[in-house]
Amino acid sequence: MAHSQGMPVTRVPDSEKITINLGHVDLGYVDLLVSEGVYANRSDFIRTAIRNQIDRHADITRQSVVRRSVELGLCRIGRADLEAARAEGRMLDISVLGLATIGADVTPELARETIGTLTVLGSLQASPAVRAALADRLR
């Protein structure tokens, strides 16, 4: 989905916080590498490790993205996009790998009338009311 004309541009955070549990020894190794200056901090180590694993499995992910017809990166779903779909009598099946944002001006009713399924591998930003309206359609 393209950015809707006339929609205010809002700043989207470029990351999301997650929590992981590590064993004491593994954490000790991470701290050792940080203290030796190999990594700037624990987060730098973890981001690098995750990127290395993603690169290691690049063929699998590339094939899966093509097979699933997933939109990569940032997908903004605005009121104008959904109203256009409603006017055409279309239900949207949206798949995103990255960040999906549903505009603050999208009502729960409009979302239910126009979004058939919403699959997000990553993060979804939407109002609590829209999330609740789409709860049975989120994958």
TrEMBL record:
Organism of origin: Methylobacterium aerolatum
Pfam families listed in its UniProt record: RHH_8 (PF17723)
InterPro entries linked: Arc_rbn_hlx_hlx, RHH_8, Ribbon_hlx_hlx
Protein name: Arc/MetJ-type ribon-helix-helix transcriptional regulator
Source species taxonomy: Bacteria, Pseudomonadati, Pseudomonadota, Alphaproteobacteria, Hyphomicrobiales
